[in-house]
Amino acid sequence: MLPKNVSIVRMTDAIAALRQKLGAAAVLYGDEISVRYEVDYSGENRCPPLAVVRPASTDEVAAALAVCNAYGQHVVVQGGMTGLAGGSTPRDGEIALSLERMTGIEDIDTAALTLSALAGTPLEVVQNAARDAGLLFPLDMGARGSCTIGGNIATNAGGNEVIRFGVARNLVLGLEAVLADGTVVSSMNKMLKNNSGYDLKQLFVGTEGTLGVITRAVLRLFPALPSRCTALCGVASFAAALELLNTMQSRLGSSLSAYEVMWAAYFDYVLEVTGLRSPLEARFPLYVLIETEGFEQAADQAQFDDALGDALESDIIADAAIAQSDKDAQHFWEIRDGIGEITPRMYPVIVFDVSVPLDRMEAFVSDVDSALATAYPGITNLVFGHVADNNLHLAVTTGREGDMATICEIVYARVGAHHGAIAAEHGIGTLRLPYLHYSRTPAEISLMRRLKKALDPRGILNAGRVFDASP
Amino acid sequence: MLPKNVSIVRMTDAIAALRQKLGAAAVLYGDEISVRYEVDYSGENRCPPLAVVRPASTDEVAAALAVCNAYGQHVVVQGGMTGLAGGSTPRDGEIALSLERMTGIEDIDTAALTLSALAGTPLEVVQNAARDAGLLFPLDMGARGSCTIGGNIATNAGGNEVIRFGVARNLVLGLEAVLADGTVVSSMNKMLKNNSGYDLKQLFVGTEGTLGVITRAVLRLFPALPSRCTALCGVASFAAALELLNTMQSRLGSSLSAYEVMWAAYFDYVLEVTGLRSPLEARFPLYVLIETEGFEQAADQAQFDDALGDALESDIIADAAIAQSDKDAQHFWEIRDGIGEITPRMYPVIVFDVSVPLDRMEAFVSDVDSALATAYPGITNLVFGHVADNNLHLAVTTGREGDMATICEIVYARVGAHHGAIAAEHGIGTLRLPYLHYSRTPAEISLMRRLKKALDPRGILNAGRVFDASP
């Protein structure tokens, strides 16, 4: 029994030291800890943290981590708790470090098109600040009201406009982070070109808080894009969907901001559940939602209509509905975003977030379909995704909770066989860690371990996320 | 004397082991080593390597590094030798590892818009392969015929289209690299979205060969851009040049592919030396070369002319010459590229490659001008640069070699004071290492050291480049 007691005493000492260092108000303990610190949006593996540290400045983050590191106290970093991979859900014996008090826009530079913000600032606050300055911060996703910019960067978030503006990594110019031992590394670069030594921010983008805690960021802004053209197309095959993508990229270039493909099973199920009507008369094997954004509605619309007209004439698309109003565009997007409506009806359901090379995508979908049908005749597998950025989502259910583990193995093994990524935009966290080997080699995982050991030798930061650091 | 002998014997052993492992033909020694392995394009600190290892495959790179690591033999990695920072120039006692035998395009995927190539492939070969497939690889610079794609990635090269397509980092999807101990880490990802664990390629992009040797890469391609609009504008002030930039970004969006600013002293000197005529009648404090690339010449030209016409009417620009032919455009670019013509006349000259935040740029240029003039009355300082990506070049000379070190101190100290980068696109190498502290904090340099120690514990790879790894 002694080791257990010793362990409990050490944790209490760490919390006492944190309260002494940061003030009792900055460290929630016992009944002060609300349920919101217990689990991320996945809802899985709920677990209360030992305490919640709420630093108000980078210096306080540094002080808190220095204390935890000295005590070997494990820490889970928390932003808006909107993740879907379990990364910010506490594990047994962890203290939560929440960035919720570190919010605010520090600076908007309308000439250089940059914005600096504290890590706990909600994405929507950043978006609105950019909009109020007549500019655009193009990172966007459903969780915008709750997710934080620090969390977006730590998970290298994707979202709706990746085809045009890239993932979060492409939108970060500078970063400040605190290492596990409390060292502050500030690289608040505002410049597009900078090759003065290692680009250290890359260590903290997409590493899910395992190498350091992001405290501030310099973000790229863009000119606002007032015009928008939207269409929903029916295509006869996946090959046609790919040909259409290439045609639109050649004709519309970087103004193409969305290219969303829905397989018929997904499309039909959404219509059935939501009562939305199809803007196309006939049924098709696949549907594609295309959107461009630009500067002049009339000129952009003419170019858009021309490109689609030519695609119709050359039989790349079978039919197309071009949005004539914002209401039309919203209708098309409601079908695409129907995933939010249908998942409650499908419960228990797994929504996969994978990437597959374009030349493998058709074979991947077909392989997964047949493997799932062989294992579970009558299984539901609804497929849709951003496609142009390789990202596919699959909503899969047999209606039985107990089948989930086998379904994961079936899908992730096929992702691996087709050289895909088991996590496209949601990250690995704890929930996908067991499947990482399908996408990454032992040499790669071993290098991740080497980095982890170099930056967090006591292994206190987000332990047990992304990969197993111990072997 | 003994330590010296011991050292020589160990080096000979390493070379013997390399010849045994890779075959004598793969290891040049003594008279077999031509001068091309002795110095990069900077021409400074020429030094013959002890031997030149020329592996023909990733496995041979791995075998060579494993041998060198076992012997503690220092290695300098060499691509096209077109660098300007001394990074690939051997230092005393180093063996050169040249990627020159590892050339070739492995794969072009015209649906996914990706291209895979071996690291030693010249940039121009990659560009031509993309062009032959009807596509575009947009990384471009003067050294295209000799520089290699591996070197471009290792130095995170910039060039002419950064404002539109980003630096080399943004064009790399996947990478294979060999660590100092011979471990092969292959992450040949072809997908835009992939958050399955750490993005390990970031360790090798822009770290100038200090953390590993790049052996293969997956690159992003883009649709070809057949149309081009070019103009040369005269503006009355730097503030006007910035306003013009913002106007063009809002009006022309991501089709803007070049925004090159020339200060009058540079412009006038180029005309004087080259005999080129100005396309504008009057003289102006600054000149701006603007270029867009797109898909339809007529529509693009109309939009381009409109945007410039409005800028003229609202007095943002004082005068503009719009290219009416390829010959006109070439003429405008010859003035911008006049740096190649004028440097031989300015010898001895330093051409700086720095970045400065846009809101500091005007003050930076003025501070440098007055500090240089105070130190050396009558000094020449010609300023021009990509500007929109923060990059400025300064060609500085007093005509005396002996003044160079002081001039560097003056310029780099001002870069530091204005939160700029002492290397924008050319990298640090050995030549800028003494000035790194002007752009990076001790905490940042210490973290670089931590990474170096984790990935190359014996310090055999490109030692003495980027930062001092020893303290």
Would you kindly provide a brief summary of this structure?
The structure is a homodimer of 471-residue chains. Chain A is α+β, with helices and mostly antiparallel strands.
Task: Write up this protein.
The structure is a homodimer of 471-residue chains. The radius of gyration of chain A is 23 Å and the shape is globular. Residues 1-10 of chain A have low confidence and may be disordered. In chain A, a hairpin with a 5-residue loop joins strand 8 and strand 9 (184-187). In chain A, helix 6 packs antiparallel against helix 8 (297-313) and helix 11 (358-375) packs antiparallel against helix 12. Chain A contains 13 helices and 18 strands. Chain A has 471 residues and is an alpha+beta fold. At the A-B interface, strand 9, strand 11, helix 6 and helix 13 of A face helix 5, strand 9, strand 11, helix 6 and helix 13 of B.
Ordered list of secondary-structure elements with their pairings:
2 copies of one chain form a homodimer.
Chain A: H1 2-22, E1 27-29, E2 51-53, H2 58-71, E3 75-78, E4 95-98, E5 105-109, E6 114-118, H3 123-132, E7 135-136, H4 149-154, H5 162-165, E8 172-178, E9 184-187, E10 213-220, E11 222-223, E12 227-235, H6 238-252, E13 256-263, H7 264-274, E14 286-294, H8 297-313, E15 319-322, H9 326-336, H10 339-346, E16 350-355, H11 358-375, E17 380-385, E18 391-397, H12 404-417, H13 442-455
Parallel strand pairs in A: 2-4, 3-4
Antiparallel strand pairs in A: 1-2, 5-6, 6-10, 7-11, 8-9, 8-10, 12-14, 12-15, 13-14, 13-17, 16-18, 17-18
Helix pairs in contact in A: 1-2, 6-8, 7-10, 11-12
